[in-house]
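fold-stage: in
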Amino acid sequence: MNTNPGSHAVNSRWKEVLGKSHRKPLVLVCLAVWLHASMVTAMSTLVPIIVREIGGVSLIPWTFALYEIGSIVVGAGSGLLVYRYQLRNPMSYAALVFASGSIICALAHFMPVLLLGRLLQGVGGGGLIAISFIAIGALFPERLMPRVMAAVSAIWGASAFLGPLIGAFFAQQLSWQSAFWFFAIMSVVLSIWIRSHVSEQSDHEVGEANHSFPVRRLSVLSVGVLLIAAAGIDPSIGKTPILVLSGIGFLGWFLRMDARGGGNRLLPERPIGFQNRVGAGLTMILCFAMSTMVVTVYGPLFMVHIHKIPILTAGYVVACTAVGWSLGAVAVSGISISKDSRAIMFGMSVLTLSITGFVYVIVDGPVYLLALLALSEGAGFGVAWTSILRRMLTLAGHEDRERASAAIPTIHRLGYAIGAAYIGIVANVVGLEVNVANETVESVAQWIFLASLPFALFGLLATWKFVRKPQ
């Protein structure tokens, strides 16, 4: 594996990447990334309108948690699917599954039906994004990869910024259902494009399937997250702690099962905790993903109710996290390996300060300061991310290098799923409802953001363990 993505950049030119021989696969990958990224931020804009029409405010976190669960399960197995069936069939079917989920969401009159659609969207979107990154390695020569990754990053940032605009446009001009119909049509178009422009003959050899698909382990993982999410629905002293502890138990069971998986493990050895620096790094990613999920899940809802701003404005405040990530990544794109530790520590410190700022600003504003905090939150991740990837590959042993690389997005999305479930428990315990006094909404907002802060502080401790030099 080339651990320095910029090492071949001098041998490539944009003209070559955009040339006839590489134009179609570049469009293919960018379309897949666009569909996934724009749907994520569009959903943040649509949520306040959806719950106003069909109810289910207590189930808001599930609309994100189920999407992430679907992405985790399919993303973890996408490599195996590509090894067995090449690129065309798994990727085109993933687009159709995404379309099916979008159609179910569009037809939903009750929140449980919409949740089913979101799960299928997650399955399709997770497959698309995972296979897209496999496709980059399969369809482009290594010397062009830095340029291709730069194009994908630009599409990701643009999609995250356009997502709220798409969601708000359809919701205000037509209906929230029409937004899901739009994404359904786009995913069908993408599936047709894949079938037309990715032939079996053009599929490159991307590996060999030597291991079985870990259905049992991924099922245990999914049940663990679902139990934690279920604890937030109609919370009670008797039920909620039991569901939370049961969910944690299933997650622990998943880790034990995976540790005994031998060569078929999904994660590196001891992936959570401070026993080794790779584990500390993954723990850092998990904690910060959990702590930042509150902005995506409840940010637009609180801004619309407390600050009386249009839904489009609230969506763009949330989208500032993606913009900040892109700006931060570009700012440090040429950083040397010797500065990785400082970049990681600085980025995670900025992220922690941003979460702390939300506790004080979510109620009193002003809105531009909320946008600035969202921008700095994303920038913290963006500044640190490249250095995190590079350091993780350096620290992982030869046997675990590929596994550690694959574990980063898996743990990241797992943190989003658990964070959405956890924050839903907090919201329902402190009394979040649709029609409550503004003072109650303000109190709930502060409690919810405050409840996310301990994970950021624990993540900061994991950051120090990750970057410090061994004794």
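fold-stage: in (second)
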Amino acid sequence: MRIHLLRHGQTPHNVAGALDTARPGAGLTELGQQQARAVVPALDGEPVDAVFCSPLVRTRLTAQPLADHRGLAVTEVEGLEEISAGDHELETSAEAIGAYDANLDAWMAGDLNHTLPGGADGHAFLARYDAALRAVVAATPSGGTAVVVSHGAAIRAYLVLRLGAPDRRLANTARAVLDGDPDTGWTMTSWTGDPVGGSHLRDDRAHDVTGEPDPHVV
């Protein structure tokens, strides 16, 4: 089957550089709403059999315009949520952002035992994201196409750890297209680092801490 793995639209915390990873999370900015609406024409002509989101508010708000246009429900799936910031939740300091980046870097370098204070390790992350994508496959017609709205750091980490992809910038409503299934594995057939609606919907002034790789590493 095919999965369009899409990051949510912009939130106020993406602009401010805050580590917003807990539930329910922030809603969308005006630009984030524009990004979400732009997903509809961006996927025009693509088959979409099911639409999924994480338990955080911003992913449902991003998924809803496409689902409404296609006459589909948005199904919430546990496990698609962002990588937890643990005790650094909603912090904006350089120390907090550095610790979050260092945790991702450790996982991507193979140290899945690394954790943030109050957070989970890489083994737990992979287990819950694998389970979430398995649930997506089970709820999508056989051989069909699903749009899955998830989160920046989670998508980046999963693509590196499970597909061996390089860690690259993932702007709000950017996407990776995966073909395959949980048993035989996934192949990334397409990558769009800019918003799917076009680069004019990218906000280069925002301090987007979960969509950007550590510049000292990549």
